[in-house]
Fold each of these.
Amino acid sequence: MARPGAALLLVLLLAAAAVPAAAPAAELIRSARVLAPDHVRLTLDRPIENLAPENFRFTTARAPDVPIEVRAAESLPGNALLLTVAGRVDPAGSYRVEILDPPAARSVRPAPWALLLTIVLSSALINNFVFTRYLGLCIFFGVSKKRDTAFGMGLTFSLVMILSAMFSWVLYTFVMTPLKLKFLQIIVFIGVVAFLVQALDTILKKTHRSLHQKWGVYLMLITTNCIILAVPLLNAAAESGPGESFALALGSGAGFALALFLMSCARERLELARVPKSFEGLPIAFALAGLFALAFMGFSGLNFMR
């Protein structure tokens, strides 16, 4: 004979199964997008009546308890809303928007492909390590005399940059962080770069001896290049994932290769130009680098997430 408690529990379970599940709150908001400098566009499944600013709550993903003031809400065609918030918003940032009546909420973040593309283009053009941060100048001026040498070094540098960034991310994420060894990140990252450069030098010496003799001397300079070390340190400081780490390494390597190629083309043309005696060699090279830096400053206002 079944116990009364068991029978009551069975009845409650059957009643709960018969009740239709409530629709999730986020279904009201089909999509959300941040529009610089101070707007958020929402696409709804159906229009809502209460468009008062107090009916909306907008926060950042890192500080969900600190709301950002919503100043106005404007209805747009196609069941869309345009929220105006106080202060500037970052199209590449992560936010959360909520509607109080009727209750709904949705996370606001850029598409992964758009974020990765932005990182690549930003690190290659807007934040070029050579022309905007003035890093890696020693190897930059040393191998930019000839175009073919600069091209080969740019490819090698990009390859070492990507491999070192990914190996460093794996060690930092799965070894150093669990073992509380973050204070050793500089030593570990330098060791990773040195290992990769030595391995690449050995491989080239065995497989492509002519290529190794052509610019194998400059391989050792990659180990002491501050850009190679800067990328893993930036990834570690930002707690970047594998995609962001790869994008930053790819963009930084491409930016350095672009800087080498442009500088080598200009320095080859300078060999046919009349340069004052006091400006021959490095002085005119520094002047050229300054002009390139001024040109790259024109990318500083670009925003690929608009």
Amino acid sequence: MSAASVAIAAPTLSRRFAGFLYGRRGFYLALLLLPPLLWFGTIYLGSLLVLLTQSFYAIDEFTATIVREPTLRTYAQLFRPANLDIVLRTLGMAIAVTLASAAIAFPIANYMARHASGRVRAFFYVAVMMPMWMSYLVKVYAWRLILAKAGIASWMFETVGLSNVLDAALSVPGIGGPSLSSSYMGMFIVFVYMWLPYMILPLAAALERVPVSLVQASADLGARPSQTFRNVILPLALPGLAAGSIFTFSLTLGDYIIPSVVGAPGYFIGMMVYQSQGVAGNIPLAAAFSVVPIVLIALYLMLARRLGAFNAL
């Protein structure tokens, strides 16, 4: 075949292939989705399946080797008092961080979406996202210095004459400690700071979609601002609130760096996964602990769906 005939046949074949795809939209869509789905199925779901499989194995107590026989002994270890305390401690912190983030984020997101305009709104979006551009470890260690016994936080309380209030808060059993950097209260502050942008941005996006006409109609019908918020704005903002709470809840459940650097002594789920896999070499127990956040997130999504958080999507 001559070069001229090849040059003529090449666009003809490409046009035929393009015409074949144009007439079969479903095949064209499947062809586009196939590479990312293969990647997702192989790398993510495949590794998750391997993780779940490891959780059904156990460690031989004498040889410290993994016995690759299906068993529930590793899951039974999760119900020991020490491990159950770790799960409840992590769950309590995740719930507290989620509630505090929602309470702080809602007025900020409401102002960004419904009142700020132009440059002010752009400034708020940049200000919210700017902490996310900084190194995670830098922020954690910076907060450790801020919350230290001789840090900026203690100096500010002493300057305004509220050092007694700080000492009283640190003396509360369960949340206090020698200093903010060595207490669950300080850990809670760092968690809220870290995950607050993940709550603000979905909430702002949801509040931007609330029609102004509905708010005006509520006011015209004589509803007070609190009634308008409770009956109009909040139900329509629930999808954004649910999305933000999923971020804050799941990220707190799985984090192991913040509890390792800031806070009182005591393991969290993420720390147990790291210790079991990296230090003790107990991969089945690490896998079993990794399943706990998956189950808790699944239960949370079921509860959110039952409460109608996704009806406005």
Amino acid sequence: MNRLWSRRTFLASATAAVAAPVLRTRAATGAPLRLRCSIETPPAHTRNGIVRSYLHDIEKATDGRIKVELFESGQLFPDLQVGKALLQGQIEMAMPGTFALTNIVPDADFVQLPALYGRTIETVHNVVDGRAGRLLASQIEQRLKSHVIGPWLDLGFFNWYSTSKPLNGFDDLKSLKIRNNGGAGQAWRTQFMGAIPNTTPLPGVPLALSQGTFDGLITSFETIASGQFWESGVRHALEDHQFVGEYVPLISLSFWEKLPSDLHEFFTEFWASKIEAYRDDMAAAQARAREVVRSRGVTIAVPSPKELADKRRAMMAQQDQVAKLSNISPAMVAAIAADLTAD
């Protein structure tokens, strides 16, 4: 299948780029180019470690001609605002979840379509690295004036979590107020389950949970563990793998265009040479986080494969409605269908 980025091609060329002792910019002055990167997750989150390592390698490889600054825990911007910040030149790099881009690029919500509910990670990669991912990358460049560095970083599967009410099955979600990351797709799924959607930026979630602003949330085990959300009252989980959270590595075009072509290649090829390991690291972190969450007394209920398939079929009857509600284009729906058929 044709992929958004050919891993084989990039891995072959990346070896030479990584081995190069120093890559120098061709800036007119000796002043380093400032690269400010904003992410909202706390320092213990695996995404932070990956971004921190990538930026460190970039700075080292360019002999300090690029000066990186990483702003964590949403101290500069929550992910819901980084799209606007990139457009306005307030940051040069971000790695937001697709769910944080939907206010500017509606098609970014495509991972929420019923067709992708409860799928395997391999199937999801066929979509995000395939036609659907290519289409979204072109839209991001046009609307956010930002360059997609390469393949997306998996956050991992998202599930349901609650505070006081046990989640033994889908019916237990009814009437609960559930926080999500943003986008119409998560809100629709919440309502489909009979719950009430709420959108709150991640930095404000612990306090809101402890104060009872909402009864639970949609997120991943890694986010629950890194934020120690059991201290804010999380006690139960329903692990339905409703979608895979994906982080999109972005650099503003205004910064990108200041770089010479050799650095374009280095940014892209170095990321591509690492993405398989990065994805493995994220998957391992989710597995570890699941065990940490369980050890903290959070009960985990897992629907059967038949229950998941039945729920997906029920949701598929409303997929056109979800796409319209989320302003997902017919072209994107068709691209996903083609990727799934080719899987």
Amino acid sequence: MATTPLRPQDSRPTAEETGRARLDALMARGAAFLGARHAIMGGAMTWVSDHALVAAISEAGGFGVLAGGALSPEELRAEIRATRARTKQPFGVNIITLHPAFDALVEMVVAEGVSHVVLGGGLPKASAIKRLKEADIRILCFAPSRAVARKLLRAGADALIIEGSEAGGHVGPVSTQVLAQEILPELAEAAPIFVAGGIGHGALIAAYLEMGAAGVQLGTRFVCARESRAHPRFKQAFIRAHARDAVTSVQLDPRLPVIPVRALRNAASEAFVRMQREMIEKLERGDVALEDARLAVEHFWAGALRRAVIDGDVENGSLMAGQSVGMVRGEQTAAEIIAELITQAADQLAWERAKAV
């Protein structure tokens, strides 16, 4: 009588294979939405996320996003076309709703046949959402709270990005961990939700995916990618920094509002505090009008990010960085960064599975 041979011992999935399979399953929804191999988005960083970096992230299996905040419609059009010349993989375009040429930018991405648009900087106009949806463009919006998340989904957003205060650049007051706990359990089934802010290791990616996130977005880790245009001195500032060095800008007087920005502390940070003190003293003496003092505070950082990223002035420029900067230890290619994150996430999931058995 014939017997069925036993399955060879070495044919069973390894821990690594088990972890990878679990990771792929958890990322499946986000990856399908983006059209990417991995549901890892590159944050759109002004002056950093240009065609070279975005194409490299997408080529590596992630999803790059062009930063359009400081570009005119024609400049952004050129970046879109330059990205397409480097990769056939999907990528997105970030548009700031407060951009003075916002409507023209919307029309440009429609004309260019962009597949995904990330809208940041405030609630988008209903007319813009309608125009993008008519063009079959997938819309991602930033949700700083559960209430805003619900409002954006009702308005027509196809996916959300929840970004906490650990992130670099302009930030809100709530941490990523709290936002994830507030929003994911209630809204993860309603739409793909990508988590951002303070993510620098794959183990945390695995945790957010298990909470219901469709994927993640990282910015700070990609600043020191070899394909990043950031000045060598800017990159070195990141490599030397610790998490505690990435601090939010200080507001000394409620009469002089300061939009919180997380960046590495430098000489410009100290000068900004001194300037506020001087404006407060002038206000008290009646030497300056309130509106003029507010404008001085608002304009202090004008051009500061470009000075740091492009010109390499790391003392007088703005070194926008998230708290995950402490996990940036050197230059790597975008492909190496993504591969490292994927391996870490899969290892974490494999370890959890082994522990449960």
